[in-house]
Write a structure and sequence with these properties.
Layout: H1 7-18, H2 33-50, H3 52-55, H4 59-70, H5 76-84, H6 87-90, H7 93-112, E1 122-125, E2 136-144, E3 150-158, E4 164-171, E5 174-175, H8 176-211
Antiparallel strand pairs: 1-2, 2-3, 3-4, 4-5
Helix pairs in contact: 1-7, 4-7, 5-7, 5-8, 7-8
């Protein structure tokens, strides 16, 4: 991210990334989109506040948490495909698998360190502007703590079983997918899909070294 990189904003990004579906309780099929976001956001806040090792950026513990409780509630295939853009259709199934793996690692490692900034924050969900039968909904929230509130919005979709999944998020006007889409397009144009994968691998290795 290149804009608004204050410590508070990084914390909001981290909170958003790790709240992309971290709900412990089973989701009711008739749960409203705003109730879904409120539930999962509250869950992640409590999980972070209760676990010092997560706040300290214990990457192994965070990855396990993401794999077990976040990923099942996120349409990460759609998120990755949208971020990669037209290059996704050029990729083989194996390349698509690698792209998802490396993109997930990039998100986790990029924002893990900022979790230490999460302390007294609360989430306020704004009134939902959507029809009852809408299949894709924008849920707007604010992260409140010290200083001015930080805008944190989610795009969610209703699946065939009636549950919700997140496929994009926005912090202070920066949409996660669109932000990476620009970066990824440059890599693909210069070096192809394999070049993007190699670039993600290098960035993840650099992030891993920096966290030690």
């Amino acid at each position: 991210m290149t804009r608004f990189l204050t410590r508070r904003t990084l914390a909001a990004w981290a909170l958003g990334v790790f709240a992309l579906g971290l709900g412990g309780a089973a989701q009711a099929s008739d749960e409203a989109a705003d109730a879904f976001i409120k539930r999962v956001s509250s869950d992640i806040l409590e999980a972070i506040k209760a676990d010092k090792s997560i706040r300290n950026g214990d990457i192994n513990k965070i990855i396990v948490l993401v794999d077990q409780r976040v990923m099942p509630n996120v349409n990460f295939l759609r998120m990755t495909a949208s971020a990669v853009g037209p290059g996704w259709r050029q990729a083989t199934p194996e390349q698509q698998k690698r792209l998802q793996e490396e993109f997930k690692t990039l998100l986790v490692r990029t924002y893990a360190g900022a979790l230490g900034q999460v302390s007294d924050q609360t989430i306020s969900v704004k009134p939902l502007r959507a029809a009852a039968d809408d299949k894709e909904v924008l849920v707007r929230t604010e992260v409140r703590g010290k200083g001015d509130p930080i805008q944190l919005d989610y795009r969610v979709e209703k699946t065939t079983d009636g549950s919700w999944k997140v496929y994009n998020m926005n912090v202070m006007g920066i949409w996660l997918v669109e932000n990476y889409k620009t970066q990824f397009a440059q890599e693909i144009n210069a070096k192809g899909v394999d070049g993007l994968i190699a670039s993600l691998v290098d960035r993840n290795k650099a992030n891993a070294r920096a966290s030690k």
